Amino acid sequence: MAEPDNTTNALAQSDTSLVRVLEDLIDVLITRGVIQFTDLPAAAQAKLLERRETRASMADRLNLIQPENDRGLL
Question: Do the Cβ atoms of 38 and 45 come closer than 8 Å?
Answer without folding.
Answer: yes
